[in-house]
Design brief:
Elements: H1 2-9, H2 14-41, H3 47-59, H4 63-82, H5 88-111, H6 118-142, H7 148-160, H8 164-181, H9 188-196, H10 198-218, H11 225-228
């Protein structure tokens, strides 16, 4: 049973999955840096993070602990409905993002002053958005599992037979409204992330694809001669 599970998890071999997992880990780290800059810019965050920041403040618990708890609840739903979406990338995302944002926010304030003018806020937000979307693209391109929040959409697509884009936008809009009502950091960036970051993520994905191709080439499994001779 364990052997079959590992084979499903790493169909191209454990070495390939290790390097893809490393890429996913780096992507999640970069994504958290971008999210932190969006928080500091104070012009809004992505809908899910904005909701979690607002609720964490409302319940007076740390962002990392709250987001991990919510992600774990969503993960149970994903495990029941579509466990094939779960992988190391899922674990990295659900466990690290919240704590990363706390850490990077603390480091930023320790080293640099926060933006005080609209121009500096926009500059920090633009840099944060570029970094955030690059990190998202890296973890998605690695293809080692999706975040619990991101897994909701494909599950709903399967259940409702609806269009992915419509369901994802609806999901983001609902979380944006939720973030607004719980006092989360909602702003123009939240709208941009919810509706317009797709092309930017695709842009980064196309540039990261060569890295994935290189990983696949360098970690390709050796050809099984005994099985190939059966077809000669």
């Amino acid at each position: 049973m364990i052997k079959h599970f590992l084979a499903r998890l790493a169909p191209q071999g454990p070495k390939n999955y290790f390097w893809r997992s490393l890429m996913s880990f780096i992507g999640v780290t970069i994504q958290a840096i971008g999210a932190t800059l969006l928080l500091i810019a104070d012009l809004g965050m992505d809908p899910y993070s904005a909701t979690n920041v607002g609720l964490a403040k409302l319940f007076q618990i740390s962002l990392g602990t709250y987001q991990l708890s919510v992600n774990f609840v969503i993960l149970i739903f994903v495990f029941i409905m579509a466990r094939k979406l779960i992988g190391t990338g899922t674990i990295f995302n659900m466990v690290l993002i919240g704590y990363y944002i706390q850490l990077f926010n603390w480091l930023y304030k320790l080293i640099l002053p926060g933006p005080t003018t609209l121009i500096t806020k926009i500059l920090v937000a633009v840099i944060g958005l570029l970094i955030f979307t690059f990190g998202v693209a890296a973890y998605i391109t690695a293809d080692t599992g999706v975040a619990p929040y991101d897994a909701i959409t494909p599950i709903l697509v399967t259940l409702t037979h609806g269009k992915y884009r419509i369901i994802r936008i609806t999901q983001d809009v609902l979380f944006t409204l939720g973030a607004y009502f719980v006092g989360g950091p909602v702003g123009i960036v939240t709208i941009i992330v919810a509706f317009f970051t797709g092309p930017l993520i695709v842009f980064w994905d196309q540039r990261l694809q060569s890295l994935i191709n290189w990983i696949d080439l360098k970690t390709a499994l050796p050809i099984n001669n005994s099985s190939s001779e059966e077809y000669e």
